Amino acid sequence: MSRIHPTAVIDPAAELDGSVEVGPYTVIDAGVQVGADTWIGPHVVLRGPMTIGRDNRIFQFCSLGEISQDKSARREDATRVEIGNGNTIREYVTIQRGTLKEQGLTRVGDDNWIMAQAHIAHDCMIGSQTILANGTTLAGHVTIEDHVGLGGYTLVHQFCRVGAHAYTGGGAVVLRDLPPFVIAEGQPARPRGINTEGLKRRGFTAEDIEAIKDAYKAIYLSGALMSEVKQRLAEMAKGSAHVGRMLAFIESSKRALSR
What architecture (CATH level 2) is domain 199-252? Predict the structure, then answer.
């Protein structure tokens, strides 16, 4: 029995593993590659060039791989989307191709949980094991590192980065870079502490968490100049790789930090 519904419209140049299931009225373009054991629901549109890995679940009314909403974008541009393995992509999610302004790529990693009506714009880089709750909107060129949780209707400004294990409350508006491990909420989003519960769930030790808290205090509560903060973090990083990660994030920031 075919796993592809007879009403689905699939270009002969699309490449689907034989185990892929496709629901009714779904449209799949040439240049789309889909890996093993991926389930694609009804009324989904997949535009190429796009690579989708294995074990993904893509729910109804998703639009993946469409040209970006950047006014400079053209359908003939050599841009693409790459989606990894084990992702759940719920209803009405949009993930759009990169632009020629960067490397022409929008990438989503592995094991992400992308909830209904989320939008991932052009040139975004999404890590692995993230949660993007309902209505989350990422503008162009945003980077979301591994294990990030974004509360419902979080908005992230273009070119911002959200560091690994960070978390935002619902409706947060992230206008600047949010360092690893930090919780932020509000409009604009401001740091409120460390994602302690999330770190515990992922096996961070009490010693790890204490070092991260000390680094947070140095960044946000010491009142020191950023140059002095970096010096303090450099000393602390000698005893904690996690603090080293926070320091590296700060040193590479181009938009300054959420404060």
Answer: Up-down Bundle (1.20)
